[in-house]
Amino acid sequence: MATTLYDKIWDLHRVEDRGEGVALLYIDRHLVHEVTSPQAFDGLRAAGRGVHSVSSILAVPDHNVPTKDRDRPNPDDMSAAQLAALDANAKEFGLNYIPMDDRRQGIVHVIGPEQGFTLPGVTLVCGDSHTSTHGAFGALAFGIGTSEVEHVLATQTLLLKKAANMRVTVTGELPEGCTAKDVALAIIGKIGTNGGTGHVIEYAGPVIEALSMEGRMTVCNMAIEAGARAGLVAPDDKTFEYLEGRPMSPKGEAWDKAVAFWRGLKSDAGAVFDREVTVDGSEIVPLVTWGTSPEDVVPVTGAVPTLASFEDENKRDAAEKALAYMGLSEGQPMTDVKVDRVFIGSCTNSRIEDLRAAAAVIKGRKLAGHVIEAIVVPGSGLVKEQAEAEGLDRVFTDAGFQWRDPGCSMCLGMNPDKAGPGERVASTSNRNFVGRQGPGARTHLVSPAMAAAAGIAGHFVDVRKF
Amino acid sequence: MRAFTKVTAKAVPFPRMNVDTDIIIPAKHLKTITRSGLGKHAFETVRYRADGSHIADNVFDAPKYAGSEILIAGRNFGCGSSREHAPWALADMGFRVVIAPGFADIFAGNCIKNGLLTVTLKQEEVDALVLAAEGGVAITVDLEDQTVTAGNAHYAFEFNPVHKKMLLEGLDEIGQTLAASPAIKSYEAKQAAKTPWLFGGNA
Asked: Which of A38, A155, A234, B88 could form a disulfide with B33 if both were Cys (CB 3.0 to 4.6 A apart)?
């Protein structure tokens, strides 16, 4: 029977069937960070249990870390305590650990692929919903809660119900000035934030194939914003080229054997998907979110929607609340919306390609005078080194943008990088939720090039004409 | 894990759609290294203004809903992050059940681990329960029978039998899985032959 890529990876990892579509699934790779793990390690200690497979784990701090002045004590005692807990747990349980002062430190979803820890065909979990990022390599990767973190630590398995299969095909060719971020937002705008609920999404079609690995990671990263716990792209030569020679990738004969195996990881021609969605990639334009849900997308050339345009009463109510929170009026052109801050970073858009795209827009220009702060936060220490070798840091700092140390930063308000109440942020992150970037902060999701252009112009602007 | 069989209690109506985990518990409160005490920060942006002042007429602090153990919620409740702090916060507020037209996958899974029941009903049934909750009607949620009762109205709901058994018995899931250790070991031996690069200590 023809099967999908998801079916194949699921079947490869089934330890035991428990009936009703539930199976005990083996987990190959486990990324650990400081926020969702302390209670899991406490649980192990309380029950006198150990870690099943230390070699399956890579731990790194990212959510709480300050992105400047790291040589000084952490300004937040609770953040410091959480970081110290990860340090202590990594030592006690003997984990592979990249501490905050290591040159490889960074966002867990950037360093997994960068270190070759993420590989095609594996099951990979992390106590973070953006674990879907790793699906770009053809890995079944998904976020889990802390109880599940503890379960994986103790048993190397999870009790899971199999999801349904969904395929999103992006046809045609992406126009100049449009990026993987616009593809991700276009898909969410079309299917909604619960469009993929209960499904694993396989992304396919010429636009996805043409994306770099960085671009594929951006698209899979936001699968969760479409409600899908995991996104997948079938591995190809681009995948293997990215992984070859990475510190944790297989070497020599093992590499050849692995590549031969990975080439079989794709959906069969006749495989049936429970749901199919097609997006015309040629029609995609640079997008901006106007509301407080990632599905609230509009072309930068467009306007804030009118409440009358929502037929569903629940949606109209949500839009009314969103407009009030965002301080926008119905029908307002997006290019009239001024920004107070710019954030270029996060597990969605902090890789070298993202920084190059932002720098290309910024080069030789200056940040608009009224913008309070624009920060560029590389996804890892290695991305930072690469960017500096290319001189990108100077492009940013010459224009008045700040060049920071790697971490989750302003994607979520749990470290010193925040926006104030009512402040409007052009942000390359993944969630425009109420209060996400600080109490009262107003987030607009955009691509790195669009965020950079908004910082220069002082308001949203069509990067294609910039 | 705390077992769940049946609850009869008042309910808080909060039928807003796409309530994300940042609304349930904002990220700044995830710095805790314990599971308790999150209830006071739950729904902070609904209960407090950005300047910290209390919003008097919010449903979560309204005296008429005090002692509620059921939350009536909107479509796609719990979307966003994988933070288990969300069900921890709901449990800390005293909730045992959330009823909605649909839940985000990771959130629903996290609820089960904490003895918190998520009941999916049709939109019109949830709408009726919102009215019942507003009218102060006690609602009964019975997991064994898979029914919700409010006055004369009865609604049946679907629930995966594997998860139902876990909730009814309050099983220690890790202990259960460890009992399957021989199967896990034999799986590892089989896979080590098939995909040796995953078991060769490369990572």
From this structure: A38
Parent domain of A214: 5-262
Is residue B5 less than 8 Å (CB to CB) from chain A?
no
Q: Is A278 part of a structural domain of the chain?
A: no
Domain check: are A407 and A258 in the same one?
A: no
Residue A206: inside a domain, yes or no? Answer: yes
Judging contacts by C-beta atoms under 8 Å, the chain B residues touching residue A161 are: 160, 162-163
Question: What domains are there in chain B, each with its CATH number?
Answer: 6-171 (3.20.19.10), 172-203 (no CATH)
A119 at interface of B, judged by CB pairs closer than 8 A: yes
Residue B105's pLDDT is 97
CB neighbour class for A304 (10 Å; exposed up to 12, middle 13-18, buried from 19): buried
Are the C-beta atoms of A293 and A191 separated by less than 8 Å?
no
Whether residue A365 lies inside any domain: the answer is yes
Q: Output the CA–CA distances (angstroms, integers) from residue A132 to A23, A118, A123, A352, in the order listed.
A: 20, 12, 11, 19
CATH number at residue A404: 3.30.499.10
* pLDDT tens digit sequence for A379-437: 999 999 999 999 999 999 999 999 999 999 999 989 999 999 999 999 999 999 999 99
Residues A245 and A341 in one domain: no
Number of domains in chain A: 2
Same domain, residue pair A247 and A319 = no
> Is there a single domain that holds both residue A359 and residue A406?
yes
> pLDDT confidence of B50, banded at 50, 70, 90?
confident
Q: How far apart are CA B23 and CA B25, in angstroms?
A: 5
C-alpha closest to that of A249 among A118, A126, A150: A118
* Residue A422 lies inside a defined structural domain of this protein: yes
Low-confidence ranges of chain A (pLDDT < 50): none
Contact B184 A413 (CB under 8 A): no
Tokens 């902060």: give the residue.
Answer: A441
| Shared domain check, A119 and A34 | yes
Instruction: Return all residues near B114 (Cβ < 8 A) that are at least 6 apart.
Output: A147, B1, B2, B84, B87, B88, B91
Over residues B124-136, the mean pLDDT reads 98
Nearest CA-CA partner of A443 in A282, A326, A314, A358: A326
Residue B174 sits at the chain A interface (C-beta within 8 Å): yes
**A423 inside 8 A of chain B by CB:** no
**Mean pLDDT for chain B?**
95
Residue B17 touches partner A, C-beta closer than 8 Å = yes
- Is the CB of B201 less than 8 angstroms away from the CB of A55? yes
Tell me what pLDDT residue B171 has: 87
- Do residues A241 and A325 both lie within one domain? no
Whether A414 contacts B30, CB under 8 Å: yes
Q: Does residue B131 sit at the A interface (CB-CB below 8 Å)?
A: no
The DSSP bridge partners found for residue B77 are B103
Please judge whether B33 and A38 are an interchain contact, meaning their C-beta atoms are less than 8 angstroms apart: yes
Interchain pair A249, B202: CB under 8 A: yes
- For residues A246 and A363, membership in a common domain is answered with no
Residue B202 has pLDDT above 80, yes or no: no
Look at residue B203 and tell me whether its pLDDT is greater than 50: no
| CB < 8 Å from A in window 21-60 of B | 22-23, 26-28, 30-35, 44-45, 50-51
